[in-house]
Every structure is written in C-alpha cells, then in structure tokens.
Design goal:
266 residues; mainly alpha
Amino acid sequence: MISGLMILPFTVKPSLYIQMIREYWKVVAWVLVLQTLINYSLFYLGMDLVPGALGAVIVGSQPLVTAVVAAMMHEEERLTRQKIITIIFGISGVILISAGRQALKIGTLIEFIGVILILGANIATAVSNVIVSLKSKGMNPLVLSSATIGTGGLILYLISLPVEGTVHTDRPLVYWLDLLWLSFMSATAFSLWFRLLQRPGVTVSELNLWKFIIPVVGAVLSWLIVPGENPEWLTIAGMIIITGSLVLFFLNTRESGTLRKASERI
C-alpha cells in the first residue's frame, strides 16, 4: 500500500491517470488479482509452511513455470532447446545454492501444502506477466504499478485485520525505516519490471530467466551482511552454473538474432 503511494507522485496528472485506468481496467484488474492478491497471499502462506531452502528452490522454479505458461498463452513464446537447457541448469544452480545452506526435504503434509501454495503463486505471477506483456502496451508502467500495488495492498490489509488483528505501532525506529526501504524497493522493482515487459522484442520467458540471478545475489549479500554466513563450495558451484548458463543463453540468442537479420538483408 505504501509502495503504491510512493509511485503516485511520479505517474501522470490525475485526469490522465483516471483515463488510463478506465481504458486498461481489465489489465489493471487481472494484474491486481493475480500479481498482488493471489501471488502475495499464496507466497507468504506457503513460505510459512516450508523450510527456507525448499522454499527457495520452489520460488526458483519461476522461470520454468513462466516459460510453460507463456508458451500456452502466446504463440510467439516457444519453448526452445536453448531455453529448456538454460532453465535446467538454472534450477540445478538454485538447488545447489539452497542445499549448501540447508537440507532439502518435504517431511510432512503441511510442507507439501506449502510447496503447492508457492507453485500457485508462481503460476499467478506468470499469467500476470504475460497479460502485462500482451495487453498493457501504451499504458504508463508507473500508473499500472501504483494502481495494482496500492489498491491490492489496501485490500490485503483489510483482509488481514479480522485474521491477524491490527498492527502494533509501538515499534523501534529501525522497523519503520526497514518498512519504508522495502516499500521503496517494491515500488521501484515493479515499475521497472512492468516497463521491461512492455518493451518491443522482449519475451516474457527470456526476461524471467534473469530471476535465476536472485539467489546468486542473495547468497553474496548474506556473506557480506549476515554474521556467520560464509561461502560454501555447493553455493559457489551453483552460482557459477547459473551465471554461466545465462551468459551462454544470451550470447547464443544475440548471435542467432544477428544471423537472422543478416539473412533478411540478403
């Protein structure tokens, strides 16, 4: 909710803002429900039920889920051999990084339910990404992110009141600073992400491959910031696999695109 309010001053004048919402109301509604309400609800409920390492691996399967969903929803999104190989290596790297930090196992029915909930969040996000890519061309990405995050956050907050009660305001200053920082990060990240999804020539599945970088950055930051966190061979191996697979994929993609343009000129 705070993230949506943070973006609002940087969007457009109020009359144009309302006009865009009216023109693209179906896109706004779908993204609000899928990306904010369903994704956040299932993700946090699921992560609360599974061990951190297992949750990281399931979340790390997002590029695979997105590639499959995109191929089903959009004829230009094909599951090429290069994408499949990159996804396999990417998920393998995520597993290695997670295994280096905590044992991977599904021990109880509750944990299995948690896995299903996180997968459901992945599917909701994937469908939302495809809708933004296909249906939101011409809409200001800041308007889209402010409307969906802000309104969705308000709805989630109202739902949470009868379930978890009101928020206690007697928190230390660092709590409120962290809250503002995380809100700012969400506002920035979603606005940039929607803009990237709208760019001509950008495919949803290829863009989502970059999400394999998340556990790599997370591991590096934990070594730098969290006391007692040190590099492990499994984690380093996973990082090398992820980085290498992404570099090779986009080098091959660029080379294929160059050859295709050359043949078109001929």
